[in-house]
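From the shared-data thread, chain only:
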Amino acid sequence: MVEFELWWLLIIPFFFGLGWLAARIDIKHIISETTDLPASYFKGLNLILFHEYEKASEAFSEALQIKPDSIELHFIQGNIYRKLGKIDQAINLHNKLLEQKELNKEQIESVKAELIQDFFTAGFYDRCESLSHELTSEQYQEFKLNILLDISIKKRDWEKAIHFSQDIEKLFGKSQRFPISHFFCELALEKFINKKNEQAVKHLEEALNINKNCTRANIILGELEYEKKQFESAIELWKRIELQKPEDFVLIATKFLESYKQIDKLNECLSLMSHLRESYAINQIDKIIFEYILHNEGPSKAEELAKSNLIKRPSIEVLDQLYSAQSLNNDTNSDVKIIQQVIKNTIGNRLFHLCSHCGFKAKQHHWQCPACNSWETISTELKDIAK
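Structure, as tokens:
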């Protein structure tokens, strides 16, 4: 056993030497490739790192004058143009590339893929869709399907969106059940608008079959029952949210309260909502209950609730609730009203629904982020951006 260990001690330096030699060869190869590039190329890369895109564009323009045949330099410049919103220049750049007769089939498809992104960014979806069908090589099939999917979403053609999502899932093994469930919800809303409720319900059931945690489907189903004054059915549908995604409960909390009030079980509802608040730290439930009490039972009851919450969970938001209730009492002095307004203005300027994917700030909840188009990344609760 001792001899075996000594043998390994002798051979390790040998393999280390081989690794060092291989690394030296790679470095020499990299150096030989990069020495052919103009200095403006490296200057442009450095400017991109610091997000100085205008200056980077100038540097790559200079690099293109030195190496006009470099497709890679054209692609980098085209990406910078898109970043700067100079879509016309990006389109012209890539169209001129396509006019070069010496491009092979693979290069032509690469240029077309860039041009498709230009058209998509510019909102020329029909041209983008038409050009996408010209991509025939295997390496661009996933790109092609994703672009066609994005176009379908932009056009709100949800049936096509479902079709392309299913193709992506089947051909590339990437689960699409999450976005597909939302596409079915969008279809359902369209059917509701056209008074085709049975078809809408069918779409919502399809959404739940694909994604059992689709709270949006249960929310819409519950709202349908609520509109028919089937309050107990609405409550049962909304109760499922706790087992799916509890934080989404705030989206229907007010109607949830009203439904329980209609069947004379408001205390049971308040107990259940308190459970949700404590179990899942859904802070906004306190505010929803406060506003419901304020509008239905008056400022005195709401003031008592705010004082109780302020002792249990002191915060500027609860203090705002207390002053809001006090300011509605006839005997409240003007100083309280001034303080309450100052607090409300301060909170209002820093509370937003935030996208966890791109940081987009919204004053109302969206199922799809308006900035990055991600689904269910906008927080259901208002976030304090000052924290």
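Residues 1-18, 20-34 have pLDDT under 50 and may be disordered.
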